[in-house]
Design a protein that fits this description.
The chain has seven helices and four strands. The protein is mainly α. The strands form two sheets. The protein has a two-stranded antiparallel ribbon. A two-stranded antiparallel sheet has the order 2-3.
């Protein structure tokens, strides 16, 4: 968390490409269409998410449009911790973008590990807590609607990706486990999305 905060505080170089919260909202709408066509998530849940995205697109000024250096693939497998020092790998996708994009990516990757029986939930929750503490956030929702848009994008992306990988009994069982967890997480955050929309998206 401390490393990411310091990285994002660097002066933004002239990136050849950047990602914006508005583009993420557009991408989520495309994901919702594909999930609907594939019957991967209930239409009611998808409709609730779509309503929030539509409202965001009507009032784009409520999103966080600050552009910072963004790793764009900030996940545990690209991080090496040794002797109290952190080394981050793979800057190939580095670009400019909202600060919460890398945060959402990292936390979503940790949430995905929860379905693996070899990892204890308490350990994952501690990693998330320590990351947020280092990043100087108290909760995942501090970034408001912008953060949650990116979180929804990551979760829907995982659901769509997994729908193409159902091979063998073990894979089918793992798919069901991850899919159920992902849908449950969507249901948890949709309430926050709607509350944020009523109170003003940050």
């Amino acid at each position: 968390g401390e490393w990411l905060r310091e990285f994002q505080s660097l002066a933004v170089p002239p990136f050849s490409r950047s990602s914006t919260a508005g583009e993420a909202a557009d991408f989520v709408q495309e994901q919702l269409r594909r999930c609907t066509e594939g019957g991967l998530v209930s239409r009611r849940l998808l409709s609730r998410i779509s309503s929030f995205i539509d409202e965001v697109k009507q009032y784009p000024d409520v999103l966080d449009h600050t552009i910072v250096p963004m790793h764009a693939d900030f996940i545990p497998s690209n991080i090496i911790a040794c002797d109290g020092k952190i080394s981050v790998l793979d800057f190939a996708a580095c670009r400019g973008g909202p600060a919460c994009r890398d945060v959402a990516n990292f936390l979503n990757a940790l949430n995905g590990v929860l379905v693996n029986p070899f990892f204890r939930p308490a350990m994952i929750e501690r990693l998330k807590s320590e990351f947020l503490k280092g990043y100087r956030w108290d909760t995942e929702e501090e970034m408001g609607g912008t953060f949650m848009i990116f979180e929804v994008r990551e979760i829907l992306g995982r659901i769509l990706q997994l729908s193409k990988r159902q091979h063998g009994i073990r894979s089918r069982l793992m798919y069901k486990r991850i899919h159920l967890y992902s849908v449950r997480r969507l249901r948890e955050i949709i309430g926050n999305l709607e509350c944020t929309a009523r109170g003003g998206v940050k």
